[in-house]
Amino acid sequence: MKVLLTGGSGFIAAHVVERLLSRGYEIVTTVRSPAKGSFITSKYPSARISIAIVEDISQPSSFDDVIKKHSPLDAVIHTASPFHYNVQDNEKDLLNPAIMGTTSVLRALKQYGGDSVKRVVITSSFAAMTNPANPPDVYNEDAWNPMTWEDAVTTKNPQVAYRGSKKFAETAAWDFIEKEQPLPFTLTVLNPPFVFGPILHELKSLDSINTSNKRALNIIQGKKHEGPIGSSLYVDVRDLAEAHVRAVEPKYAAAQGKRIFMTAGPFTDLYVAERIREKFPSIRERITDDLLQNLGEKSAPMKFEVDNSRSKEVLGMEYRSTEETITDTVQSLLDHAKAK
Ligand code: NDP
């Protein structure tokens, strides 16, 4: 199988690369610069990986040349999308790249991909499901973020704008599939909440840590929580990467056409801090009683249930324990800190 993976330099995508290679698949992956590509190819010198440069997915024709050059492809996994809160302009920095990145890859596939591509998987998010003001009793795949376009464009809160980018990108994907039939491929959308886990991608310094692992890093560094705590659901990056790969495999045909909520369940910052105290004596003193009290106050109990049964039914997911995820995340961050 030959798979196009967008955003190969990212935290999640690095694990998808590893899973695809472990199955013996050929990969074409897009990155923004040749240097980012070299990091990947030098990590896997004997693997079948081609690098394609796509500097900015905000352009309508971003993926045209890649698809023309590398077809025939069997499947596409689209992970590239901005996930950061360093935002000056909601549309330019978050909404446009998220939405255009999604529609440009789908459009290029339709125009230039021939009929070889059978499966497309897109990494959406719990951000496209969440309704913090009025949560359902049980979150499942029926849940949609109710945010309006105007809210997404005008909010001064970058986390809210990010959630809008994921909602409108996912909506654009499903609209495309509905309106552009006949298409040779089906769509599967994965909706993970906070993703934690070991770091495989190039990390030049801990300051440039990806957004979700930053939450664990803050606790390792003994930082208190200032503002309100957002989503406290999580999934392990290794489980999520496995789901991306299964979703393109014929064996998991039931995933086709589905939106899949990918979560192992809830966690709290207090739990993370307590595990650090228990398992990492070298940094135990950073987890002060004061910090535990702060995190305990901020780690309010969830007001909803979660239903991840579809991920188990159609992708056969078995999630790692919270303890394994948190322990391996902390260990990986400490290893990186030591290596710098
Ligand atoms: P990363 O920031 O590590 O990866 C994002 C990837 O997208 C990087 O390869 C990045 O390239 C690329 N990218 C971002 N903006 C552009 C752009 N304008 N043009 C080209 N490439 C771009 O984040 P994650 O791995 O965590 O996220 C991957 C996907 O998973 C995203 O779609 C994200 O929304 C989603 N997700 C992540 C969650 C999490 O907790 N981590 C939770 C739910 C969903 P570069 O590094 O060169 O900027």
From TrEMBL:
Report the EC code(s) recorded for this entry.
1.1.1.283
Q: Which UniProt keywords apply?
A: Oxidoreductase
The encoding gene: GRE2_2
- According to its UniProt record, which protein family does this protein belong to? Belongs to the NAD(P)-dependent epimerase/dehydratase family. Dihydroflavonol-4-reductase subfamily.
What would you give as a GO molecular function for this chain, any one?
methylglyoxal reductase (NADPH) activity
Query: In the UniProt record, does the keyword DNA repair occur?
Result: no
Task: From the Swiss-Prot or TrEMBL record, give the protein name.
Answer: Methylglyoxal reductase (NADPH-dependent) gre2
NAD-dependent epimerase/dehydratase domain: residues covered: 3-257
Look at the named UniProt entry and state the broad enzyme category this protein falls under.
oxidoreductase
